[in-house]
Amino acid sequence: MAPSESEARREASHWYVRLREEEGDEAAQAEFAEWLHADPAHAKAWQSMCETMEAVGRTPAEWRSCGLPGQVGRLRESRSANRAPRRRAGIAIGAAIAACALALALPTIGLHLRADHITAPGHVEQVRLADGSTVRLGPDSAIAVDYGDGGRTVRLLSGQAMFDVAHDEARPFRVRAGDVTATVLGTSFDVRMLGSVTGIAVAHGHVRVEDASARPTGAHDLHAGEWVRLDAGHAAETGTIAPQLVGGWQRGEALAENRTVGSMIDEIRPWFAGRIIVADAGLAGRRVTGIYNVRDPEQALAMIVRPHGGRVTRITPWLLVVTRK
Predict the structure, then answer these.
(1) Comparing C-alpha atoms, which of 293, 318, 324, 321 is closest to residue 104?
(2) Angle, vertex CA 156, rays to CA 193 and CA 265, nearest 5
(3) Residue spans of beta strands (DSSP E) within the chain
């Protein structure tokens, strides 16, 4: 793939996130229209995303024609028109496509409204909190922060985050991920909600993990190198890991030790600015062991499924399908 095409795909994914965060912002829509017309590769990347979203059923019926009006060739022809009509047409097209992006984003717009910090697929961000604690926010992840006199609470709304907590004995630090709460005084630990599994792993310090929906209520005291994973049925799996390997996703690594293919695919999804579909349920249940480079999602997927007779097919830049050979 040419560098310009790769860059266009990356920028298109950024626009997708920005437009759904800045709903109704006319300045953002005008800026988007300007970007769209700056290079034919931009138009191709954006239309490819719209077509992919329609293919996987995420486009509402009223937006089935959300691709670029007149296709990319007509954008080139429009360059010969006079400046004022072209600008008006560009803004109109930009506004229409921005509306399309917002319609595609309806299932997740609530997440953006609730989050204080959010990342795009494939991107990691470091956030410094008011008390000096830091959060390394994983790709396609979101948190909401609630600090008060009685304590410090961060809600992991989606994805994964590595926390390095500033010590404050008078104000415990809590991370809530769904029904699971991790409470600490000062430590470094990883919290993840990927697929149907919530996991906590401790790099150093002491974390108490409680699952409010478990019956009886489940509690786990974790120290350096210990982890717990809780599935959708609130069943807990525990184990140990070298403390220096906790939060390996920050280095673009996904560690699997007798993990299911399905759980590893869930770990890769946040790194891909599109949709990954697994067409074989039996393949998802197979087990794998290894370390995979999630910064190259397509290659990591291929390495995970190949030993079990699987293959990865790229339908468009925004859609990967996993099947058996």
Answers:
(1) 318
(2) 25
(3) 117-118, 125-128, 134-137, 142-148, 151-164, 173-177, 180-184, 188-194, 197-204, 206-211, 218-223, 226-230, 236-240, 253-260, 275-278, 287-293, 310-316, 319-324
Specify whether the CB–CB gap between 181 and 207 falls below 8 A. Answer: no
d(C-alpha 316, C-alpha 45), whole Å: 10
Q: Are 241 and 201 in contact (CB under 8 A)?
A: yes
Strand 310-316: give its sheet, edge to edge. 275-278, 319-324, 310-316
The C-alpha atoms of residue 193 and residue 107 are separated, in whole angstroms, by 18
Residue 296 corresponds to which tokens in the numbers above? 């190259």
Residue whose token pair is 């991790």: 182
CATH class of 116-244: mainly beta
Instruction: Output phi, psi for 201, to 5 deg.
Output: -135, 140
| Fold entry, domain 252-324 | Phage tail protein beta-alpha-beta fold (3.55.50)
Answer yes or no: pTM beyond 0.90: no
pLDDT > 90? residue 16:
no
Torsion angle in degrees (nearest 10) through CA of 178, 184, 190, 193: 0
Q: pLDDT per residue over 241-261, tens digit each?
A: 999 999 999 999 999 988 999
